[in-house]
Design goal:
11 helices; DUF7586; Beta-lactamase; 2 domains; globular; alpha+beta; hydrolase; hydrolase activity; eight-stranded antiparallel sheet; single chain
């Protein structure tokens, strides 16, 4: 509670809500308000700004999973006539399409959407400010294009798709396009005096997919669980893992953060967090989840500037995760094991580098250096008897067993690297051969 009270006081926020979830349930929520005797709770709506982009990205990945588009498709294939049709859907998702960060004047967040009734008005005369695909440059109009893409492919509005494909299946009944009571009002706090000014709450129109939504701490924690584990009614765990994978280079000087497919990815304090920050006039928000620890943090405030909601959300998550580390799963023996697979376990050598091959409970294997630093990786079993790398240097690479004519194991092949049972063993399938004199002293 102290961290939330400090955030509200130092950030000079009319109100501040923080909450932490673990393994799908809210384990702590607290709030602070400038009104004595009255404070919001985890069911009070706040505007969440760019956290909306994550919802839009989920809708796009759903279209990909249904085979209705490919992420490498140019936008023009599905949404013709934009003038930036050469950019790909993946580039829009990762903010690497080269598009401008904002719309042409006036300030779109504080003006009527009727000033931008078409995509032409959203993009302006100079929509591209960087070479396509060359750098990460955050773009709100890019997510307007993605929202219009969803509408073009689905044949229904972004709002209708959002409600039926995400909000209803996940039970996010307090997340909506328009505010629903109880909700906070948006305020600007004077930078040099303790006085406030109400902020307008505009309907963003075409820009809605970039920042329209209102939500609560409880709903966002449920959404965080989905981002960590997936839900086959919306997106599979495999697709969520793809969204959480870095896909866009970080800007110079920001090496602790990058961007996936619609998700911000940040590192620090020995953990990786995925989620998003958000702001609109009158509101700031933060949502982060540590997938490995199963902990999520949310922070919401109703002030245009001052409260560091994204920072506080990460700190609240860390407080819980550090105080009560996640319990490891109980060790259990395998229910059955293939003797041929068991025979592959143990030490293997890539040249003189010693590795150990270990069986995993899911039928996969792990290859780990036995001493010192090295390229360790987990591998997922494929139907053809090979394994596919899941992480690290060998992500996506193929591990296979190479057998001799008599069926005995010759070696392991990993992306052309040869692993033998002995270091540079005589007669082994070592590229370049092994010196006939064998190992020797000085």
């Amino acid at each position: 509670m102290h961290r939330v009270a400090l955030a509200q006081s130092e950030g000079r926020a009319p109100s501040f809500v923080g909450a932490v979830g673990r393994d799908g349930r809210t384990v702590w929520a607290g709030s602070r308000s400038c009104v004595e005797g009255h404070a919001p709770d985890a069911d009070t709506q706040y505007r969440i700004g760019s956290i909306t982009k994550v919802f839009t990205a989920v809708l796009v990945i759903r279209l990909r999973d249904e085979g209705l588009l490919d992420l490498d498709d140019p936008l023009e294939k599905h949404l013709p006539g934009t003038g930036v049709g050469e950019v790909t859907i993946a580039q829009l998702l990762t903010h690497s399409a080269g598009l401008a960060a904002e719309t042409p004047s006036p300030w779109w967040e504080r003006t009527s959407a009727t000033l931008r009734p078409t995509l032409d008005a959203v993009l302006g005369e100079r929509p591209l400010v960087h070479p396509v695909g060359r750098r990460h440059h955050y773009s709100n109009p890019g997510y307007t294009l993605l929202g219009s893409l969803v509408e073009a492919v689905r044949g229904r509005s972004w709002e209708e798709s959002l409600r039926s494909e995400i909000l209803e299946p996940l039970g996010l009944h307090r997340t909506s396009v328009q505010p629903q009571a109880p909700h906070a009002g948006g305020w600007a706090v004077h930078p040099w005096a303790d006085v406030m000014l109400p902020e307008p709450s505009e309907d963003l129109g075409l820009m809605a997919p970039a920042g329209q939504l209102w939500s609560t701490a409880d709903d966002l924690l449920r959404f965080a669980l989905f981002l960590a584990e997936g839900d086959d009614r919306v997106l599979s765990a495999r697709s969520l893992q793809e969204m959480r994978t870095p896909a866009s280079p970080a800007e110079a000087g920001t090496w602790d953060g990058t961007y996936g497919l619609g998700l911000q990815i940040v590192g620090g304090a020995g953990r990786t967090l995925v989620g998003h920050s958000g702001s609109l006039p009158g509101f700031v928000a933060g949502l982060w989840v540590s997938v490995e620890e199963g902990v999520a943090g949310v922070a919401l405030a109703n002030a245009t500037s001052g409260p560091m909601a994204a920072v506080v959300a990460a700190e609240l998550l860390g407080i819980v995760a550090d105080a009560e580390p996640r319990l490891p799963e109980p060790w259990r023996p395998l229910s059955e094991v293939d003797p041929e697979l068991l025979a592959l376990t143990g030490p293997w050598y890539w040249g003189t580098y010693a590795y150990g091959l270990r069986l995993a409970a899911d039928g996969g294997v792990a290859l780990e250096p036995l001493r010192g630093a090295g390229r360790n990786a987990r591998f997922q079993a494929r139907p053809d008897g090979t394994w596919s790398g899941l992480d690290g240097y060998f992500a996506g690479e193929t591990l296979r067993v190479v057998r001799r004519e008599d069926g005995s194991v010759s070696h392991l092949d990993l992306g052309s690297f040869v692993f033998t049972r002995e270091p540079y063993e005589q007669g082994g399938a070592v590229p370049g051969g092994v010196d006939e004199g064998g190992w020797r002293g000085l």
